[in-house]
Amino acid sequence: MNILMVLTSHGDLGKTGKSTGVWLEEFAAPYYIFKDAGARITLASPKGGQPPLDPKSRDPGAETEAIRRFNADREAQAAFTDTVLLSSVSHEEFEGVFYPGGHGPLWDLSEDRDSITVLESMAAAGKPIGAVCHGLAALRHAKRYDGRPLVEGKRVTGFSNSEEEAAQLTSIVPFLVEDSLKQKGGIYSKAPDWQSHVEVDSQLITGQNPASSEDAARAFLQAVSREPDSGDREAEGPR
């Protein structure tokens, strides 16, 4: 199976002078779940090359087994430093697409036309779409063939307002993931802050926060591994 992972290229945390980017756990845990299942993984980003890493995701307190494995894995590190241009990929090459988080996607993937095209093409083909934490920002402007928001009427989760407040970034980020999902008609739910929570609605798989990375990735892998049924594919309509 071929899986596309889309990573942010944005490394500035608003106007704070601080850095952001990919949250390492949200990349590493899904990456190894997919790899250990035998998947061929393509890493892509809007600018290609090495995505920025949120420095806080390397703090000792954030370290997980997946991060330790990544830190010792030269092959994975090489792949991470050499992502392909998102504009160069086609949904036809992949069985599904997965978006890790970190605050970076709030600025670039939420507006990136190539990302939106991938998402809308995947949805139209009935292929699984997975996202965790701030990776849900990428769904903000994605639509179905009839112009309705991709998340409308779907059970979803993502980084909660209370978690953003706890991170003291509510006034820094351009928008709040929870609010955005609700505004687009998503049926949002959450667990207590920092606890794992995953929602699966047909071919849309979403995780709330870094603690949800493994569970979201496993649910996504299950969706990729099964044949889509007629309810997974969008009805034909104007493009």
How would you portray this structure in words?
Helix 1 crosses helix 2. This protein has a 7-stranded mixed beta sheet, sandwiched between helices. Strands 6-7 form a two-stranded parallel sheet. It is built from 7 helices and 9 strands. The chain has one domain: Class I glutamine amidotransferase (GATase) domain (Rossmann fold), CATH 3.40.50.880. It is an alpha/beta fold and 239 residues long. Helix 1 links the parallel strand 1 and strand 2. The radius of gyration is 16 Å and the shape is globular.
Keywords:
disordered C terminus, alpha/beta, 7-stranded mixed β-sheet, Rossmann fold, two-stranded parallel ribbon, single chain, about 240 residues
CATH topology annotation: Rossmann fold
Give the DSSP E fraction (strand runs of 2 or more residues).
Answer: 5-15%
Task: Count up the helices.
Answer: 7
Helix/strand-derived category reads alpha/beta
CATH superfamily: Class I glutamine amidotransferase (GATase) domain
Radius of gyration: 16 Å
Number of domains: 1
Mean pLDDT: 94
CATH architecture: 3-Layer(aba) Sandwich
